[in-house]
Design a protein that fits this description.
- The protein is an all-alpha fold.
- The chain has one domain.
- The protein has three helices and no strands.
- α2 packs antiparallel against α3 (38-70).
- The longest helix is centred in the last third of the chain and has 33 residues, at 38-70.
- It is elongated, with a radius of gyration of 17 Å.
- The model has no long low-confidence stretch (mean pLDDT 77).
């Protein structure tokens, strides 16, 4: 059981690290970032990832708690 817990924790951590290099922009943000230059575009990407991290963390916690509560039924 501990292996499963560590696996999901490592998977979550890997997802966060992979998301930090993602280009998380819609088409409008991409056009705006292209006009601003390299450094502000990276800051815009970082801000988008920062704003996306909280809802994803909440969903991850809720999913884990649901899984832990219902693992006997699975």
């Amino acid at each position: 059981m501990k292996i499963r817990k560590h696996f999901f924790l490592c998977l979550f951590a890997a997802g966060l690290l992979a998301a930090s290099d993602a280009n998380a922009q819609c088409s409008i943000c991409t056009k705006t970032a292209q006009q601003m230059g390299e450094k502000p575009a990276k800051a815009l990407n970082g801000g988008i990832i920062y704003l996306a991290a909280t809802p994803l963390a909440i969903l991850g916690i809720l999913g884990f708690r649901w899984y832990r509560a219902n693992k006997d039924m699975l």
